[in-house]
Amino acid sequence: MDGTSLLMLGIILALLCASALFSGTETAFTAASRAFVTRRAKEGDRKAVTLGRLSERKDRVVAAILVGNNLVNTTATALASALLISWFGEGGVAYASLVMTALLVVFSEVLPKTLALRSPDTAALRVVPVLSGTMRLLGPVADVVNLLVRFTLRVFGGRPPEVEKPGITEDELLGAIDLHGMGHQGSADLAARQERSMLRGVLALDDMVMRDVMTHRSRVTSLNAAEPPEQLLAKVLASGHSRFPLLGAGEEILGVVHARDVLRALHAAGDDRARMDLRAVAHPATLVIESRPLREQLQDFRKAPIKMAMVLDEYGSLKGIVTLEDIMEVVVGQIAERGEAILGDLAQEGQVEVRGDVRVRDINRELGWELPEDEAATIGGLAVARHRGIPKVGAEITVEGFTLRVMERRGLRIDRLSVRPPEPPIQH
Questions:
Q1: What is the CATH number that goes with domain 210-332?
Q2: Which end of the chain has fewer CB atoms at under 10 Å, N or C?
Q3: Cα 203 to Cα 274: distance, rounded to the nearest angstrom
């Protein structure tokens, strides 16, 4: 083997390495997490800053990489053909085709891309110098290629692709949340599931309104200013709540009274219950419509002295109340009050007994079920909606495989029921 052949073999080997570098760079660049790159850039990583800037024109970068990769592949194949023709004559073309195809596929495509996919974020930061050098050398060529692609698409009636905007969609974020903690076992899996639930709850705040978390007025303990002060004091002491709507004649909303305000009113009256005046200590009521977004109300609660809002219907009548705790439960899950158990602790033998006013969303969240949430806000409302009427005590309603059994009614209201999930399929 003469010196010329050795030189050509060396050049071919170098071109194969360059092809592998281009292939791995392309995979790392396109597979790198934008969230990872953004976080590292904010931490001051210069490579991440450069990578983020290049990602703003991903089409241009990919075109430059592909131009470089095809250039070295074509050159390597041409040199291999010339070398093998000098060795084997015309049959060297077939040999060159077979050998270069195997080398390019295994060592310049599959191997580097597999390595890049093992840790695309780290790999992307490592190949930033390659990306920068490629863009300096082949960036103008990539621009010409993209212009030709757009022109060809217009000629044939296609729509040129829009330049990808940096950022992440809500669907992508939800997908990332679903992947968080996958594969963990035991306590780590439980913690991951709770974290996923909380993250989804944060995103849900933008899509939910006051009616979705409202406590209906039938469940609200309110104070009527027309009642004797002794009765009002007894109602406050008997209740487990700390805030109470204060109503007047014709259910006029006079304000909100905190339990400590009752003590102040009693002290101001010289401990004379009969002279206690709750109107004097009531806070102005926050009045909102039922379609107000939760996120807006949460911002208002941050500045409000009393974390309770009165929800009005379209006729201006009181429909229910929403507290800061109601909104926080969307994120952190059920917050138990005194004497109230967490739904997950109630489940026995696969079923659970709950109040009729428990929200379907809370049941799904705490127990991992998939009851429909678009038909009614509460589990009792779901039973009524599917039964197409008020079911009797003992009635069983089937909803998407779940069995809802009415345990107790108070008037026309379903006060308590049991929910049994579908039987798991029999494994053969």
A1: 3.10.580.10
A2: C
A3: 50
